[in-house]
Amino acid sequence: MESLTPTARALLGLLHNRARTGYELKASIDKSVRFFWAASYGQIYPELKRLEEAGLVRATDDPRGGRRRTVYEITADGEAALRAWLTDESATTFELRDEALLKFFFASSLKPDETLAVIRAKRRQHEERLAALRAIEDDAKEADGFAYRTLKYGIGLQEYAIAWCRDQERELQAGAAETQR
Amino acid sequence: MESLTPTARALLGLLHNRARTGYELKASIDKSVRFFWAASYGQIYPELKRLEEAGLVRATDDPRGGRRRTVYEITADGEAALRAWLTDESATTFELRDEALLKFFFASSLKPDETLAVIRAKRRQHEERLAALRAIEDDAKEADGFAYRTLKYGIGLQEYAIAWCRDQERELQAGAAETQR
DNA sequence: ATCTTCATGTAATAAGTTACATGATTAA
DNA sequence: TTAATCATGTAACTTATTACATGAAGAT
């Protein structure tokens, strides 16, 4: 038996709470784990099929009027696989891809105002992310405590990044002022 | 002309400072941008070929004894492409994949000691990353100020994550103690 | 009427890792 | 002599995104 991708396990984790359609799973992801584990339809639907073939979820046709609809629920085997993953101590994926930071890293060849633009773009990005996280705060509060704690972690991360950007902006402007004297 | 991947641009950025072999580029990445932009040989060598075909780098055979060796230097077109990217204001990639956090998010079905194990594993991971960043601190200081500032950003991020983990551990243990009374 | 949301799916493509193969040079 | 480092590369695979196609139901 092939081992599951973390994305498949995320689906199992969401289905642990309640049965959902692929569409609902996508919406749930976007309202919860998206900021540290995104997933697209192009992954979710094939992944659900694989999970069904592996017997970890059960698919049930449940049309709403003339609109076809498939609800997935987790099976006992699925619950076991979820638990096995959660309690497995082996190494977990941790990856960061930050192109704005990459630009900042190479900023030595830029003029101060161009560097400033790089940092401001990065700050804006984090501010948008922060706003997106704040927008789902109420939903997270209603879910269990772990969802809310996870969200607060994300909020803190974005705030750290924003504060760092502000520091860099300040230092850059101070440096530019000094050169002008 | 096809647009470049951020990884290709990272190579250009590194070559801006000085010419390097593919092997040296990999080593440079591992000692600088790796924590927010990793790259493997499987990407670097083909990418260098593409950059050469596009005329953005120039390859020169420069064997050391009987060991073949190809040094890449950035061309004027390459410098222009680098600059264009650095000053381009359009959206940049920002992605986080944190499987440990995913586990934490789903921890409601775990027993307190199992949840504790999840957080501790996450903390250990960040502590290792922090140590890796601290180990390259001297190199970053010797490079330009942006490299060092970028590193400090990474260090701060890891410290934030570690502090958060410690908070969660404390809260969990406090909660467990309360239940026992 | 028409726009949004609900709903499912695939094909093409992109981006990247892992494992492997090969072989020279240098340090212990 | 043996291990580490320098050096280059590819094939197979994995993971994921984007764009597209399709169509029903509900809201305005």
What report would you give on this structure?
- Two copies of one chain form a homodimer.
- With 181 residues, chain A is mainly α.
- The first copy, chain A, has eight helices and four strands.
- Chain A has helices at 6-17, 22-30, 41-53, 76-87, 99-105, 112-135, 137-142, 145-180; strands at residues 20-21, 57-61, 70-74, 94-98.
- Chain A has a three-stranded antiparallel beta sheet with strand order 1-3-2.
- In chain A, helix 5 packs antiparallel against helix 6 and helix 6 (112-135) runs antiparallel to helix 8.
- The first copy, chain A, is elongated, with a radius of gyration of 22 Å.
- The model of chain A has no long low-confidence stretch (mean pLDDT 95).
- Chains A and B meet through helix 1, helix 4, strand 4, helix 5 and helix 6 of A and helix 1, helix 4, strand 4, helix 5 and helix 6 of B.
- Chain A binds a DNA duplex (28 and 28 nucleotides) through helix 2 and helix 3.
Which short descriptors sum up this protein?
about 10% strand, about 180 residues, mainly alpha, homodimer, DNA-binding
What radius of gyration of chain A results from the CA coordinates? 22 Å
Given the helix and strand composition of chain A, which structural class is it? Answer: mainly alpha
Poorly predicted residue ranges of chain A: none
H and E order of chain A: HEHHEEHEHHHH
Distance between the termini of chain A: 70 Å
What overall form of chain A do the CA principal axes indicate? Answer: elongated
**Number of distinct helices of chain A:** 8
**Average of per-residue pLDDT values of chain A:** 95
Largest sheet features of chain A? 3 strands, antiparallel
Helix content of chain A: 55-70%
Strand portion of chain A: 5-15%
State the total count of DSSP E strands of chain A: 4
**Assembly annotation:** homodimer
Order the strands across the largest sheet of chain A as they lie in space.
Answer: 1-3-2
Largest interface: A-B, 57 and 57 residues
